[in-house]
Amino acid sequence: MTNDISPQPPVRWGILGTGAIAHRFMTGLRAVPEAEVVAVGSRSAATAEHFAQTWNIPRAHGTYAELAADTGVDVVYVATPHSVHREAGVLCLEAGRHVLCEKPLAVNTAEATAMIAAAQRTDRFLMEAMWTRFAPATAAARALVAEGAIGEIRMVQASIGGRMDYDPRSRLFAPELAGGALLDVGVYPVAFASMVLGEFTSLTAQAHKAPTGVDTQVAMTVTGPGGTLGLLGCSIETPIPRRADIVGTRGSIALTDWFCPTALVLHRDGAQPERRDFPHRANGFEHEVEEVHRRLHAGQRQSPLMSWEESLRIAGTLDAVRERIGVAYPADQR
């Protein structure tokens, strides 16, 4: 008997942006055998060339437009600060490239809508790179919830934070660059709660702000269907423990370093805690790369695990939180 299953051809990647997140993404990407990085693009020819030499990438482009126009690229990973996501994402989509865009997908709902419209118009794949969704530990937590292992879900708690020295010139503290804790790290707990609870029916929020007016610490409560609750927090001024808990009527699931977890602990009423380990092959970015490949090979234009609808829902929640805490960006007026 002959094996008529042919291996899939390599997926050719381009990297747009050369900052720290791009280097971390490359580590995960290189752990996926069928991923081939063929080009990198930057706003500077020198930084593009340096990145290309560091990672042995064949082509270095000194502008985003040159990378977008590179017909040897199948998918572009947008690794820029989120203030540039809409510009870079639409540029690549309209040039015929599929796009994996770092979180948050865009600064606000209007920009996210424009990116999704571009993907629909050009018949290209687009996904927000919420790596939390694709970690095997997160998938295991979803499966446990679905099988009723902890009963009826009633609450989610998720927080994340780290201390960043105040610098008004840093993108983290600059309103014109959509700075602040919420968009930089707060998107993680919002997305986690959305994954577990579904669409929120109400929310409250309080914040502490930097002298530049952006948020440095945010506490949020959300309500989901049936009165489920989410207690969420984020900070760029305090090292909040990175833990998430999904709490049901008959137990709970705890994930540490939950934004890219390698283990979970299942607590069931009347039983000893069960630790389950799910190590990464690399650093965790490989899982979202594999999801992109799966969807492209299936001819799909979005992922059911991180759909366009879900990204719009998250963007809308972030908009609503910023409205409540009084944080606005110049991009909101465009």
TrEMBL record:
In this protein, which residues make up the domain named Gfo/Idh/MocA-like oxidoreductase N-terminal? Answer: 11-127
Q: Which InterPro entries is this protein grouped with? A: Gfo/Idh/MocA-like_OxRdtase_N, Gfo/Idh/MocA_domain, GFO_IDH_MocA-like_dom, NAD(P)-bd_dom_sf
Q: Is Oxidoreductase included in the keywords of this UniProt record?
A: yes
The UniProt keywords, alphabetically, are: Oxidoreductase
Domain called GFO/IDH/MocA-like oxidoreductase: residue spans: 139-253
Mind telling me which Pfam families this protein's record contains?
Answer: GFO_IDH_MocA, GFO_IDH_MocA_C3
Cited Gene3D superfamilies: Dihydrodipicolinate Reductase, domain 2, NAD(P)-binding Rossmann-like Domain
Taxonomy, superkingdom:
Bacteria
The family line of this record is:
Belongs to the Gfo/Idh/MocA family.
Q: What is this protein called?
A: Gfo/Idh/MocA family protein
